[in-house]
Amino acid sequence: MANVLRKEQFILPEGVIYLDGNSLGPMPKNVPARLSGVMNDEWAQMLIGGWNKAGWMAQPTNVGTSIGRLIGAAAGSVVMGDTLSVKVYQALAAGVKMRPERRVILSDKGNFPSDLYMAEGLVGLLGQGYELRTVAPEDVATSITDEIAVVMLTEVDYRTGRMHDMQALTKLAHDAGAVMVWDLAHSAGAIPVDLAASNCEFAVGCTYKYLNGGPGAPAFIYVRPDLADTAEPALSGWLGHANPFDFDLHYTPGKGIERMRVGTPPVLQMAALEEAMKVWDGVDMADVRRASLDLQEQFIKEVEQAVPQLELASPRDPQARGSQVSFRFEHGYAAMQAVIDRGVIGDFRAPDIMRFGFTPLYLDAADVTAAVAVIEDVMTNALWDDPKYKVRGRVT
Ligand SMILES: Cc1ncc(COP(=O)(O)O)c(C=O)c1O
Ligand SMILES: Nc1c(O)cccc1C(=O)C[C@H](N)C(=O)O
Fold this sequence. Notes:
Blueprint lengths: L9 E2 L5 E2 L8 E2 L2 H16 L3 H4 L5 H10 L9 E3 L3 H15 L5 E5 L4 H14 L4 E5 L4 H4 L4 E7 L11 H10 L3 E5 L11 H4 L3 E4 L14 E4 L43 H10 L8 H22 L4 E2 L11 E5 L3 H10 L2 E2 L1 E3 L3 E5 L7 H16 L16
Parallel strand pairs: 2-13, 5-6, 5-7, 7-8, 8-9
Antiparallel strand pairs: 1-3, 4-10, 9-10, 11-12, 12-15, 14-15
This protein binds pyridoxal-5'-phosphate (PLP) and (2S)-2-amino-4-(2-amino-3-hydroxyphenyl)-4-oxobutanoic acid.
């Protein structure tokens, strides 16, 4: 097993153990110099010429290809842009168009709310009996019927880390004649993903979590290569047009994955992400997975030994878990604030989930032990039981 630890490539503040890279990854050290270069050498000096000379226009597909390597997507089948919520909408809309005789989008009640909101917005717009149907995560498999146009699932549950079986559910969707959309927000850079093997039609994901692209980093969308020239883009912006600079009055979708572009790419954010992707050079996701599970198993064992009042909310079976571990505690919000105050950064998800992300590129076994010592101190000495930790002021 190759060692994937490369802490020296990240900026990690002194005295902090960062267990929240599943929400916002830390900054790779090489990013500021790259951004400074893009600003001072490209934007400042090249002005509008940067679109051609600095290759800004080609970034969305170039960066998409570097992400594709981590998620089993062929070069040229992934493009960057917009936010994940927008990419969810795009994938869903294109999927629904592929099954015009069907009216139901199926998802699960554990899905990230924005995915469900986007689906609600889409079915509201479509009218004509379109419906978003949500079921318990464990009931998804038996709910895939021949009424379903699109199955939309997030592979790794944002609260508990519970994983759906991508290959099996995609097959069930296809057997029932449905289109499959996977949200890889908590998968890309966290666990091995093989989109090509899954055969799903669409996948989307964000890049500010495990891919360390920075706050507001652009999202990605994958379209199965055999569909890329026929998928209909509902968000028909000019940069998805076949010839944007012809300024035609009518939309003609671009070639292949290019049609999933919408408008002007966020060049600075894209440059930060492109630079951040370099920390993955030579990294094999199978090694990341093994290292992540080692850290998670150590964490669960040490927490359960030290703090029996915390109840594991994540699957105990490591193979059923993504790259995070969550514990339930009635006063989880206050407890997490007390833990953060002592330098261990995790987060809280209502109603009672204390969530910790494991990112073996910059976390090791000593970090886990040190984090557990802080959690033990907070819990055994009830340090959370302090009015200052009970005011629900944080946005994250
Ligand atoms: C599974 C999932 N889907 C969608 C989103 C929303 O992403 P964005 O804010 O980039 O639109 C998130 C995270 O915020 C997420 O975890
Ligand atoms: N995207 C976020 C943001 O803009 C602010 C705060 C948090 C986020 C997140 O990504 C939350 C994350 N999707 C989650 O799993 O809870």
